[in-house]
């Protein structure tokens, strides 16, 4: 099977590493890719300059390269209709249609689906203008949760006790032409649970947790994600079965009922609140950086699984099997991330197993340079979470990137038994 992965982050590097270890994969390409994906995958002709938001270009690359399966990593091409274009070209594609990707692309659409499917989530107030913003904040109360309704690369949400900051974020989104959603605040630890689905059958993966805030102790601004670990030693037994029954399957069934079947990766971002499990958000794709810790633990060959989802044959797929142990990933970010990341700095000590590349490029002089805010996702597995954590941080210490920062507490609260649902 010739597999083409679309995207250029550490999630796509992790997908490539997992796909290369599936004996069914005879050729692998990743476009546009990065300096890390180049070590395990080709790019396809012109693939290094692929514009992922252009569905015609994605489909043309897949056709030209002779792909049997296309795996779309990021949300932007999905929301733009890249999966539809690939399927229209007669090629199997892992990823939802443009319509179905609205479950991530529009938070109000996701709320409608959840209401129809009876899926538990935060109460929400759609905001059409500045006056409604004040009313919604009064009704929701502090702490305030103010969201950009559309895609915002993990930076559209502000959670704050500061009313002025909540109002300012709402105005910023409205002024830029976006729609705003105010939500009830959900307490309790967060869980990311991914499920592979063909639109009917749903196979959940291992639960993971990511660290969204920039700084240790969950301080600082929200980011695309600063690290992750899996599995969750503190998760209640039966959590995955419960979420399958109350969240994932009803959502997939409701999407099919609406005539917008969702196939691909349904990512449920959950809060385990004192009143039970609530959906914080849905994403229409593998999470980043959680994928970097979930895939190294998956024993089932990945290409076969994704191909079954893409071709509607997941009901015939054998049950998933997992390796013992745990995985931890630590994101090494560029100076200035997330506000204004500096790029172009040399990156060394970034080769070898487990060092997944996010924002890197090979410069004209052949050196690897930073090319984005999140530069590397340094990943290790171990017999348990403590061992995986130690191995990941030892590997981080060998990386050289001027001005780099990373969190020093990824998975620490879980290792120390400080998380309770
Ligand atoms: P989202 O983009 O919707 O995933 O939001 C990003 C992050 O903001 C989430 O992972 C949570 O940490 C936080 N967040 C979002 N919605 C809520 C909520 N209703 N209550 C508390 N925290 C939230
Ligand atoms: N880890 C958060 C996301 O992928 O959206």
Summary keywords:
single chain, alpha+beta, Rossmann fold, D-amino Acid Aminotransferase, Chain A, domain 1, 4 domains, five-stranded antiparallel beta sheet, four-stranded parallel beta sheet, globular, binds adenosine monophosphate, binds glycine
Description:
Pfam families: GARS_A, GARS_C, GARS_N. Pathway: Purine metabolism; IMP biosynthesis via de novo pathway; N(1)-(5-phospho-D-ribosyl)glycinamide from 5-phospho-alpha-D-ribose 1-diphosphate: step 2/2. It catalyses: 5-phospho-beta-D-ribosylamine + glycine + ATP = N(1)-(5-phospho-beta-D-ribosyl)glycinamide + ADP + phosphate + H(+). This protein folds into 4 domains: 96 residues, Rossmann fold (3-Layer(aba) Sandwich); 50 residues, no CATH class; 127 residues, 2-Layer Sandwich (D-amino Acid Aminotransferase, Chain A, domain 1), CATH 3.30.470; 91 residues, Phosphoribosylglycinamide synthetase, C-terminal domain (Glycinamide Ribonucleotide Synthetase, Chain A, domain 4, Alpha-Beta Complex). The protein starts with a strand and ends in a 6-residue tail after the last helix. The model has no long low-confidence stretch (mean pLDDT 96). The strands form 7 sheets. It has a 5-stranded antiparallel β-sheet with strand order 11-14-17-22-19. A 4-stranded parallel β-sheet has the order 2-1-3-4, sandwiched between helices. Strands 5-8-6-7 form a 4-stranded antiparallel β-sheet, with helices on both faces. With 421 residues, the chain is α+β, with helices and mostly antiparallel strands. Helix 2 crosses helix 4 and helix 7 runs antiparallel to helix 8. It has 13 helices and 23 strands. Helix 1 links the parallel strand 1 and strand 2. It is 29% helix and 26% strand. Adenosine monophosphate binds next to strand 6, strand 7 and strand 16.
């Amino acid at each position: 099977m010739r597999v083409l992965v679309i995207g250029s982050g550490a999630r796509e590097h992790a997908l490539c590493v997992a796909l290369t270890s599936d004996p069914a994969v005879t050729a692998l390409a990743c476009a546009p890719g990065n300096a890390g994906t180049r070590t395990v995958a080709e790019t396809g002709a012109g693939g290094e300059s692929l514009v992922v938001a252009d569905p015609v270009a994605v489909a043309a690359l897949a056709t030209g390269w002779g792909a049997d399966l296309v795996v779309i990593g990021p949300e932007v091409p999905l929301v733009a209709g890249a999966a539809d274009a690939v399927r229209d070209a007669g090629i199997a594609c892992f990823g939802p249609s443009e319509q179905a990707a609205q479950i991530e692309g529009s938070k109000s659409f996701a709320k409608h689906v959840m209401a129809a499917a009876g899926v538990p989530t935060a109460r929400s107030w759609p905001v059409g203008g500045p006056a409604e913003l004040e009313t919604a904040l009064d009704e929701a109360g502090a702490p305030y949760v103010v969201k950009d309704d559309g895609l915002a690369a993990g930076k559209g949400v502000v959670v704050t006790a500061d009313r002025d900051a909540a109002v300012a974020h709402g105005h910023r989104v409205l002024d830029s032409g976006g729609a705003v959603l105010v939500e009830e605040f959900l307490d309790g630890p967060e869980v990311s649970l991914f499920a592979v689905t063909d639109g009917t059958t749903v196979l959940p993966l291992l639960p993971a947790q990511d660290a969204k805030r920039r700084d240790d102790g969950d301080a600082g601004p929200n980011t695309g994600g600063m690290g992750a670990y899996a599995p969750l030693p503190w998760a209640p037994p039966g959590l995955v079965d419960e979420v399958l029954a109350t969240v994932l399957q009803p959502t997939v069934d409701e999407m099919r009922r609406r005539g917008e079947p969702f196939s691909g990766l349904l990512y449920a971002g959950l809060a385990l609140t004192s009143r039970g499990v609530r959906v914080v958000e849905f994403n229409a794709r593998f999470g980043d950086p959680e994928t970097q810790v979930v895939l190294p633990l998956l024993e089932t060959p990945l290409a076969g699984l994704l191909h079954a989802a893409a071709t509607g044959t997941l009901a015939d797929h054998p049950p998933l099997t997992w390796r013992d142990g745990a995985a931890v990933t630590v994101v090494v970010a560029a100076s200035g991330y997330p506000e204004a990341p500096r790029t172009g700095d040399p990156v060394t000590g970034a080769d070898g197993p487990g060092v997944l590349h996010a924002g890197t490029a090979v410069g004209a002089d052949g050196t690897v340079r930073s090319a984005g805010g999140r530069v590397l996702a340094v990943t290790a597995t171990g017999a348990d979470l403590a061992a995986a954590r130690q191995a990941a941080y030892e590997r981080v210490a060998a990386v050289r990137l001027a001005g780099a920062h990373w969190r020093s507490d990824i998975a620490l609260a879980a290792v120390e038994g400080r998380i309770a649902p």
